[in-house]
Specification:
By secondary structure, this protein is of the alpha/beta class. It has helices at about 25-30, 70-80, 110-120, 155-170, 185-195, 215-220, 225, 240-255, 270-280, 290-300, 305-320, 330-340; strands at about 40-50, 55, 65, 85-90, 125-130, 145, 150, 175, 200-205, 260, 280-285, 325. The chain has one domain (about 35-340): TIM Barrel (Alpha-Beta Barrel), CATH 3.20.20. The mean pLDDT is about 95. Bound molecules: ligand PBG. Ligand PBG binds near residues 130, 177, 217 and 288.
Length: about 350
């Protein structure tokens, strides 16, 4: 932008001093272009078997897996803090995993029980359920595998069953995170056919084959299953941004209600591009590794973790994100409430 376009041709230093508007806290607040709001945050929650059982996830400091009976209290807390929705992820017991991921459409699987329990106690909070097979497969891939290849079209049928099972349990938003081609159309068709026309589809449209998912895989227990394999034949290459727009265009054509970019911070350019091109609700996933590295540095005394997390979330807003899935949702929302004097 030229100096003239920026309005600095008539007045400039010393008459114009940009520091004038940074002088006090109230002035800085007054001219803030973006602000954090609990209403834009989504808390991911990990569910495990057991009763009154909570297990810390060592690589995700501050995050615990909770048994189904403990979830309503956690979600109640989200409601109090003004967090509109939670995203559920199951730590499926190894004996329930299989080659064909059949547990994914068991109406009594962990995540379905969790959905029913939450809806019974805190119906006003939205529930997002992941659609992908990795919590349920012995090989840890998001799709069905034959001869070492992740199968596309065969996986779509499994994803349809999983999505319908989630919707039937009361899930408000199903979120395909598997990156198979054609899954949004397949899932939408299955939902509509089974009477779930109101169920929202949130597409993990631009999901990259990222090394930042490590702690998440610990939390759901898919890291060991996956071993040295990777997801590069279906998740996107970190080198590409034009391709992300093609992915989103297809998902929009297949009737996705909202799209997501994942991971977050290393892909702010993608968030911006998607929001500008399509203008539809654009979410971003501040993933496990992004959260863990800030927390780890905080524990070492190398960073102020709370300030860094807030700065990250604000960066998502600045890039154009409408909402943010983040492990920091509850802690940041609690601090925002405190600051409001609530
Ligand atoms: C599984 C899934 C992953 C995440 C969300 N859903 C991991 C993966 O693709 O291996 C990652 C979330 C995070 O790292 O916080 N389909």
């Amino acid at each position: 932008m030229s100096a003239k376009a920026m309005g600095v041709s008539l007045a400039s230093f010393p008459a114009l001093r940009l520091r004038r508007l940074r002088r006090t806290e109230w002035l800085r607040r007054l001219v803030a272009e973006h602000r954090l709001d609990a209403a834009d945050l989504i808390q991911p929650l990990f569910v495990c078997e057991g009763r009154r059982h909570r297990e810390p996830v060592p690589s995700l400091p501050g995050i615990e897996r909770l048994s189904v009976d403990l979830l309503p209290a956690a979600v109640e807390r989200c409601a109090e803090l003004g967090i509109p929705a939670v995203a559920l992820f199951p730590a499926t017991p190894p004996e329930r995993k299989s080659e064909g991921a059949e547990e994914a459409w068991n109406p009594d699987n962990l995540v379905c029980r969790a959905i029913r329990e939450i809806k019974r106690h805190v119906p006003e909070v939205g529930i997002i359920g992941d659609v992908a097979l990795d919590p349920y497969t012995t090989h840890g891939q998001d799709g069905l595998v034959r001869d070492g290849v992740v199968l596309n079209d065969e996986t779509l049928v499994a994803l349809q069953r999983q999505a319908v099972t989630l919707a039937a349990a009361g899930c408000d938003i199903v979120a395909p995170s598997d990156m198979m081609d054609g899954r949004i159309r397949a899932v939408r068709e299955a939902l509509d056919r089974e009477g779930f026309a109101e169920t929202v589809v949130l597409s993990y449209a631009a999901k990259y084959a990222s090394a930042f998912y490590g702690p998440f895989r610990d939390a759901v227990g898919s890291r060991a299953a996956l071993g040295t394999a990777d997801k590069k034949t279906y998740q996107m290459s970190p080198a590409n941004v034009q391709e992300a727009l093609r992915e989103v265009a297809l998902d929009v054509a297949e009737a996705a209600d909202m799209v997501m970019v994942k991971p977050g911070l290393p892909y702010l350019d993608v968030v911006r591009a998607v929001k500008e091109h399509f203008g539809l609700p654009t979410l971003v996933y501040h993933v496990s590794g992004e959260y863990a590295m800030v927390k780890a540095a905080g524990r070492l005394g190398w960073l102020d973790a709370e300030a860094c997390l807030r700065e990250c979330l604000l960066a998502f807003k600045r890039a154009g994100a409408d909402a943010i899935l983040t492990y920091a949702a509850m802690e940041v929302a609690a601090r925002l409430a405190e600051e409001r004097g609530a």
